[in-house]
Write a structure and sequence with these properties.
The longest helix has about 30 residues. The protein is built from 18 helices and 14 strands. Helix 13 links the parallel strand 9 and strand 10. The protein is of the alpha/beta class. The strands form three sheets. A six-stranded parallel β-sheet has the order 3-2-1-4-5-6, with helices on both faces. A six-stranded parallel β-sheet has the order 11-10-9-12-13-14. A two-stranded parallel sheet has the order 7-8. The structure holds nicotinamide-adenine-dinucleotide. Nicotinamide-adenine-dinucleotide (NAD) binds next to helix 1 and helix 5. The site of nicotinamide-adenine-dinucleotide has 27 residues, from helix 1 and helix 5.
Length: about 425
């Protein structure tokens, strides 16, 4: 693999598109970014970064002269032959992936034999084949197509982009696949070069497997609560087995975010549409939904009726180090608590702006201690480091009650108890 700089285009400047653009600019490539959201493009042109992601603002600033932003495709088509597609593919009501944004991009392509669409968006298996069919029907068969799924994790997205575990390139063995391989060569990552359908499936299967691991350890945690074992010890003992590995073995309030829920559901639907009933994924989804609600039972166990009780939620984003609120467990939890008559206060270090739009009737605080003021109970929803470092004696002074539900098992139970508080983790019934 030689490795070369070449101008590229990125269509869709959300979490994946912007990180992809920043990453390739960091590697020395000119990047032409296109989005239909004129406000987003105007902000990016002014040097503002619309999302929170560690190191992203600095990376965009450092590489400003190589990054170009526009709502128009024309400059991108003029300068770049590889057009990375990173538009959203949210779930439809049926659980299938909504491909309308992808289809809009395909429809906007001109006739060309020097361009390629490089699909970063997560799409069902068969999408690449369908797109090539559509391009051919429109007389654009000269357009090449590459599947190049993205595996970055929000919260460490730029680092993941620059140091990927692997790069997957699915193509027809033509110039476009070679060009994408060359573009990624400087990262020195293991390469999986394969056909388009297999590349599409690798992405869906990887996310479904990780989600399965989470639901599995959540069920083990629930059994631990019934039997007196401590799931933190259990996960440590399991994770040291190299065949299992320790990542994604952390029980909590269930998985959320813009990827796992929709990708698991999309794979289940894809299987169903092809005549196969994917039983395991049905259970993974159900366990996850129940897990988000279990915390309400824990609150009721200690507080009785929640009517008129104040519950403080610490952390709102679906995971730390991001402001992404899509499918966050905090949304389900706040709504459940309000439905049971509780008053909900909340604090998140970076997600308040997004959360305010989604959480009606919640009282937002400027800090953790403020959110805990007069609270009967506190729930750690997102494991931001500032909550693990909280002074629990100070916290206890603020609270009216004593209950701390550690929804992410991120606190030191002894420190919480030493402050005179009652500690409830996930799957830690037997913990000291
Ligand atoms: N967020 C993640 O962690 C992650 C990780 C891996 C893969 N993915 C996949 O990558 C894709 C993008 O995800 P995201 O989280 O970045 O989405 P996002 O919603 O943050 O960004 C999508 C962007 O595309 C823009 N857009 C929509 N239609 C467009 C069009 N026709 N032309 C140009 N721009 C258009 C939107 O305005 C938006 O800015 C999805 O398929 C997702 O499943 C996401």
């Amino acid at each position: 693999m030689g490795g070369q700089c070449e101008p590229i285009a990125v269509i869709g400047t959300g979490y994946v598109g912007l990180v992809t653009a920043a990453g390739f600019a960091q590697l020395g490539n000119e990047v032409w970014c296109v989005d239909i959201d004129a406000d987003k493009i105007a902000r990016l042109e002014r040097g503002e970064v619309p999302i929170y992601e560690r190191g992203l603002a600095e990376c965009l600033e450092q590489n400003r002269e190589r990054l170009h932003f526009s709502t128009e495709l024309s400059a991108a088509l003029e300068h770049a032959r590889l057009l990375f597609v990173a538009v959203g593919t949210p779930p439809t009501y049926s659980g299938d992936a909504d491909l309308s944004a992808v289809n809009a991009v395909v429809a906007a392509m001109p006739q060309s034999d020097r361009h390629a669409l490089v699909m970063k968006s997560t799409v069902p298996v068969g999408t690449g084949a369908a797109i090539r069919r559509i391009l051919a029907e429109q007389g654009k068969e000269g357009f090449a197509y590459v599947s190049c799924p993205e595996f970055l994790k929000e919260g460490s997205a730029l680092a993941d982009f620059l140091e990927p575990d692997r790069v997957v390139v699915g193509d027809d063995g033509d110039w476009a696949g070679d060009a994408v391989v060359d573009l990624y060569a400087p990262l020195g990552a293991p390469l999986v070069r394969t056909d388009v359908a297999s590349a599409e499936m690798i992405k869906l299967a990887a996310n479904a497997f990780l989600a399965t691991k989470i639901s599995f350890i959540n069920e083990i945690a629930n059994v631990c609560e019934e039997t007196g074992a401590d799931v933190v010890e259990v996960a440590r003992g399991m994770g040291l087995d190299k065949r299992i590995g320790s990542s994604f073995l952390k029980p909590g309030l269930g998985f959320g975010g813009s990827c796992f829920p929709k990708d698991v559901s999309a794979l289940k639907q894809l299987a169903g549409n092809s005549g196969y009933h994917f039983q395991l994924l049905t259970a993974v989804i159900e366990v996850n939904e129940l897990q988000k609600r279990r915390v309400v039972g824990k609150l009721q166990k200690h507080l009785g009726s929640l009517v008129g009780k104040k519950v403080a939620l610490l952390g709102l984003a679906f995971k730390p180090h991001t402001d992404d609120m899509r499918e966050a467990s905090s949304l389900v939890l706040a709504a459940r608590l309000q439905a049971d008559g509780a008053n909900v206060s909340a604090y998140d270090p970076v997600a308040e702006g997004e959360a305010r739009k989604l959480m009606v009737g919640v009282q937002f605080a400027g800090g953790a201690l403020e959110a805990l003021g007069d609270a009967d109970a506190c729930v750690i929803v997102t494991e931001w480091p500032e909550f693990t470092e909280l002074d629990w004696r100070q916290a206890a002074e603020q609270m009216a009650g004593t209950l701390v539900v550690d929804g992410r098992n991120c606190l030191d139970p002894a420190a919480v108890r030493a402050a005179g508080l009652t500690y409830e983790g996930v799957g830690r019934a037997g913990a000291p």
